[in-house]
Each structure stands twice: as structure tokens, then as C-alpha cells.
Amino acid sequence: MSEICPTLENESTLSRAAFCMYTYMLLESGGKQEFKMPRGKYGKFMSAGGAYKAIRELVEKGFIEIVEQNKNLRKANVYRFSTRWKGS
Fold this sequence. Notes:
- The protein is of the alpha+beta class.
- The protein is 35% helix and 14% strand.
- The chain contains three helices and three strands.
- It has helices at residues 16-29, 39-42, 48-60; strands at 34-36, 64-68, 78-81.
- The chain has a three-stranded antiparallel β-sheet.
- The longest helix has 14 residues, at 16-29.
- The chain is globular, with a radius of gyration of 13 Å.
- The protein starts with 15 loop residues before the first helix and ends in a 7-residue tail after the last strand.
- 20% of the residues are buried.
């Protein structure tokens, strides 16, 4: 993963995997607030288990929100960027 993801200056905020996932989410969103992140996209650089942990960390730390969880529908989940991490 070190070849794909940039290094962090302040690693105390996010794990390397979460930072990598957030970076790819920014690219995948195309500048939109709400976006889909299909497994085929993150499967190229991260295992399913690693992606699940990274997404959970991003949600817990307030970087993203899950808008639609579509696991049972076999569709990509819908996410929204959040500013909760800034601490209002």
C-alpha cells in the first residue's frame, strides 16, 4: 500500500489505511458531496476487511457518513463527506 498511498504528516488523526481510503473516496466522488464507492474500486488497493475497518474509522472520526447501506441489495453503499471531524 505504501506505493499507492501518500505518507501522512500527522498520522495521529487517521490510520494509513483510512487516509488511503479517504483519498480514493475524494477522487471517486468527483467533487460531489454524496458518492458511491463500489467494491471494485477499493478492491484494487485494499482487502475487503481492511476497507471495512478504514470506512468504520472514517465514520467514527467524522470524516464521512453512510447515507445508504446496500449490502443486502448487492449495490454500492452511498457515502457523504462530513465536517464533524473539525469539531464545529
